[in-house]
Specification:
Blueprint (H helix, E strand, L loop, with lengths): L1 H4 L7 H10 L12 H15 L2 H5 L4 H8 L7 H12 L3 H9 L10 H5 L11 E7 L7 E7 L3
Antiparallel strand pairs: 1-2
Helix pairs in contact: 2-3, 2-5, 3-5, 6-7
Length: about 150
C-alpha cells in the first residue's frame, strides 16, 4: 500500500493512518523500511503539502491524529510535526501534542521534549570515533572507544 500511496496519497489516507496507529506490517516481513515509518513519511508529506486553511478547518484532523500516534523512531518526527502545527496556525494542537501525558512514553510528541538526555561528556583517555553509515536517511552513528593504555 505504501508503494501505491507514495505518488498519490489522497485515496490511501485512511489506510496510511491505520498502518501508523496499529504499527501494521506483513506477517512474513523480513526487514527493510519499517512500514509504519514509511506510512508516516508519506502521510506527513501529504499533510505538509496541503494549504493551511485545510488544516485549520479540521479537514485533515484524522490524518493529524494518526501522525501523533506514531511510535517514534527518532526525535525528528515529533519535532517536524510540532513545527508544522506552529507554522500552519495550529497552536492549540501543538500545545496539546507537547503537553500530552502518554500512557506509552513513545506514543506522543511529549517524548521528544521530556526524555532528552544530557549530552555525554568523554573523560580524558577516551576518544570518539564516528562511524558514518550511508543509507536512505543519511544517518550517522557515533561510538565511543577507549584509547589503549
Amino acid at each position: 500500500m505504501n508503494a501505491l500511496a507514495r505518488n498519490a496519497p489522497q485515496p490511501y489516507l485512511t489506510m496510511l493512518g491505520e498502518v501508523i496507529e496499529q504499527q501494521l506490517q506483513p506477517h512474513d516481513w523480513w526487514g527493510g523500511t519499517i512500514p509504519a515509518g514509511d506510512s508516516w513519511s508519506i502521510l506527513f508529506g501529504y499533510v505538509k503539502s496541503r494549504p493551511a486553511v485545510e488544516l485549520t478547518a479540521g479537514q485533515l484532523d484524522s490524518s493529524l491524529d494518526a501522525l501523533e500516534k506514531m511510535h517514534w523512531f527518532s526525535s525528528s518526527e515529533p519535532r517536524d510535526l510540532y513545527a508544522l502545527y506552529l507554522r500552519r496556525g495550529l497552536v492549540a494542537r501543538a500545545a496539546r501534542c507537547r503537553e500530552a501525558r502518554p500512557s506509552r512514553t513513545t506514543s506522543t510528541c511529549t517524548s521528544t521534549w521530556r526524555t532528552r538526555a544530557p549530552r555525554p561528556t568523554y573523560p580524558e583517555g577516551e576518544r570518539r570515533a564516528v562511524l558514518a553509515h550511508t543509507s536512505r536517511s543519511s544517518t550517522a552513528w557515533s561510538h565511543t572507544v577507549t584509547a589503549p593504555p
